[in-house]
Amino acid sequence: MLKNRYITIVLLLFAVPFAIKAQSPYTMFGLGSLDDCTLGINSGMGGVGYAINNKMQINPKNPASYAAMDSLTFLFDVGMSVESDWVKEHLPQGQTLRETKTTANFDYAVAQFPVGKYFAASLGVMPFSKVNYEYNKNIPFGEYSNYGEGGIHQVYLGFASKLYKDLYLGVNASFLFGNITHSSTILPTSDYNVVAMIAQSKMHITDYKIDIGLRYTQSINEKNSITIGAVYSPQKKILGKKYDDLYQLETSGETSLSVDSDTTSLKNNYEMAATYGVGLGYNWDDKLIVGVDFTYQPWSKAKYLPTWKQNYTDADLKGNYNDRYRISVGAEYKNATYSTKYFDRMRFRAGAYYEKSYIKVQGNNLSEAGATIGLGLPIMKDKSLINLSAQYFHRKLSPDAKVVENGVSFSIGISFNEFWFFKRKIE
After folding, report:
1. Which end of the chain has the least Cβ crowding within 10 Å, N or C?
2. The total number of structural domains that make up the chain
């Protein structure tokens, strides 16, 4: 019976759809919008997770957290979200363009289980980056449009160990894969003898990533404790191929199609920045959890070849990104874990964050600020939860904020918590 359950969970993890979408115009730059391994509990708390001390929830943000789980428990978590974005663009002529888009996304499916008394493991699938944008504009002789889609997915396997008392060490090994496609099209009107052009650039990524986490909890007294967490991921070259294709369609005379193609390796032209993350958490009587996280990624040191750049030198590969940092704060409160009253077992969450993005647009820096709220709803008398969260975010460029983006995201996740490894003495 236990073996069949394991097989079922593994099939669920890898049978989920891999379509991931974002709808921000800023995803046309770099690798798109980066994901921070946030599950249901993290989403409602502003994205904190490096030093959250919660044995009932999976926390891939810090792989060291796996070994702190109950040795008799099996955890499984799956989530999805719906996002609406409102984009406003200020034109030089004084006009303002507005657009609203809504998408639904699969977010993650992860599992966690003990491996002996002092070890635990986790595996799952989550997004790493998301790309989805589309815009059109009129040009003197026709129409010009840009379109992009895709993203990078990560399938990870993590292990953690208890080193000493409340000191834990963990590692996530992730396989990264996916396609990022950018297309530019010029469609002239029939009044002009101009060549229609379609340029397409496709990045096909097959790569890996390592994340190392450390976590330590120090008890202050019987009811109070402080947790410190840290995560590190080294800088590395991005592996895969890049395919550039140019299609030309003659619009006068005899119609003909010409194709120009080029294939290059990503390894020498693209890099992934290192990640440094630290967090501080406070736990009061297993009722109140408060956390603060700081993440830093020196993307300015990473190579990146702009999408349509040709005849480039090594100097063109540097300085195309900004260093990224993110500050998150969040809290969760529940009155009691095992109360007979449903309201007492509910979890109430809130958080906020500020992020300076790695994306640079014509010398302008992108920043994002947001606030979150969340609920953890117990399923009957079980320790399993339905996690609901809502997020408001605001993105803009500076100093030239001609494109401003606001949006809300609603997510739902189901976290299953079962005693799969408990041996009954009486059948």
Report:
1. C
2. 1
